[in-house]
Amino acid sequence: MTCRQTASEKTKMDLRYFLDTFQVTVPQMEQLIATALSHGGDYADLYFEYTTYNDLLLRDGEVSSGGFHIDFGMGVRVLNGEKTGYAYSENTGMKDMLAAARAAAMISGGQASGTGRKGAPAFGKCMQQPIPALTGGGYYPAELNWRDAGTAGYLPFLKDIEQKILSKDSRTAKVTARLSASQSDILMFNSSGEMTCDIRPLGSISASAIFSCNGRNENKSVSRSFRRGPEMVTVETAEEMAEEATSGIDARFEARRPKGGSMPVIMGAGASGILLHEAMGHSFEADFNRKGQSIFSGKEGQRICHEDINIVDDGTVQYNRGACNFDDEGIPGQKTYMVREGVLNSYLHDRISARWYGISPTGNGRRESFRFNPIPRMRATYMENGKATADDIISSVKKGIYVDEFSNGQVKIGEGDFTFYVKSGMMIENGRLTAPVKDINIIGNGPQALADIVAVGNDLRIDNGTWTCGKDQSVAVSCGIPTVLIRRLTVGGE
């Protein structure tokens, strides 16, 4: 039995810290596992969480809201063939934890069915993979602790963002700025004898501004989010966000709705990666595929796009919002190629789907909190660099649309059809960006759009905004993409 610790070197946390935090002993955890498996089962695990949240909202120069919240508890999961039993307790008293373990056991009750692909290993055998220890904070070592920082101390920082936005554009009518931060202590233990500890910081800063000119209003929002401590709050960050919030406002006032139709579409580097996340990434999550619900079901090893395309879901990007030292099943964070050189290389697996496919988990078992069962989820999803420059890609299009910022979107996982609303874009005419556009939808099919990518830029940018993915439960993610040319999509305009 080992504790694969990932706490910061500065805090010098060890297993004793986590056991004391949750007021639990190893023999008690072993008893909980035994109780969870008392009705039969292939595997059981425990998930302990202590999370503190800080939040401060500034609106029109005044504090609109602020608060401090604590979330504390544990969850018990039992896997019994295709059945899952899950229960949780909002405290770690032994009586209540045993009640949760018995409830999970009863929900999963019956003899293990052993279902899965022919020859699939039992859960325990599949999961007992040698995992090297991580030290020094892994992918998000925090220099400072959010719990030591009073929320009110960040009011001058938020006011600085507000004043910088106001000073950069006289048309600014309203500014809202917000800072939210959390720190989570996580302890996991399972029936394979694996124990995992993690400390997860997460800081988020956002600003929204409304601009007014000649009776018309336009708005723009910017954000930054990292798995870092309070050291991420700097004067430089305030300046960067204010500059971003006020850039491109002239184009927004000038933008018009273009004529619609089927045409080439260029996705700008960075935040356009949300289309990759929504229209394609979800279809690679293994629960959809093992149930036959995804358009990519059964296509492992098949070519699905051009050989220059590599699509990654990555839990190892330093300080990234989607980074995971370990996922919420105790599997180490890793970089997973969903598409490698145009071929469907891997789905995104939790322990359940990995066992079904007879492979190792990819570290994608994630949950919103101890109240939720882990399921396959994305982390940082992006397309790797290609060979073309952004200028060359743009110059290759005679007539089309360039888009670099989306808002609402809808995707059908089974069919792969998607619709996204474009917040910011430009017309492309004779190889040049010309008039700004707005109020258009981009409509297409994920697999077809992937197959229709004809050029990939060398300017990959991972967007560090406050992306949150909802799939019955919410988790922090990020996305990115280089400049990409899709041969043809439907543009909903006039």
Explain what the structure shows:
By secondary structure, this protein is of the alpha+beta class. Helices cover 21% and strands 37% of the residues. It is built from twelve helices and 24 strands. The protein has helices at residues 15-22, 26-36, 94-107, 123-127, 155-168, 235-246, 249-254, 273-281, 286-290, 351-357, 390-395, 446-451; strands spanning 3-4, 43-59, 62-80, 83-89, 172-190, 195-213, 216-226, 261-267, 311-314, 335-340, 343-344, 365-366, 375-376, 380-383, 399-411, 417-429, 432-437, 440-445, 453-456, 461-463, 468-470, 474-476, 478-481, 484-492. The strands form five sheets. Strands 1, 2, 3, 4, 5, 6 and 7 form a seven-stranded mixed β-sheet that branches. Helix 2 packs parallel to helix 3 (94-107) and helix 5 (155-168) runs parallel beside helix 6 (235-246). It is globular. The N and C termini lie far apart (64 Å). The model is unreliable at 5-12, 112-121 and 124-136 (pLDDT under 50).
